[in-house]
Amino acid sequence: AADLPPVSETDPTAKALGYVEDASKSTNPKHKAGDDCSNCQFYTGGATGRGACQLFPGKSVAAKGWCVSHTPKKG
Ligand code: SF4
Known about the structure:
7% helix, globular, mainly beta, 3-stranded antiparallel β-sheet
C-alpha cells in the first residue's frame, strides 16, 4: 500500500468526503479530536506514513489524515 500514489485533497472524492492530509487541521464540524485514518476501519496501513483506504481504491491516504466517513476500528 505504501507504493500507492497519494490521493490529492482536490480529488473529487476527497473533496466530497472532506478529506484532509492532516486531521489536526480539519475544520470539519464532524471531526472529533483524535480521529484519523490510522484508527479508521477502512484504513490498511501503519500508524505513521501512508496506507490504503477502501474508499480511495488505488490511492494512499495519510495515517494522520481524516475524512467524514471515518469509522472507528472495532476492538
Ligand atoms: Fe481515512 Fe477512514 Fe476517511 Fe479512509 S474512510 S480517508 S481511512 S478517515
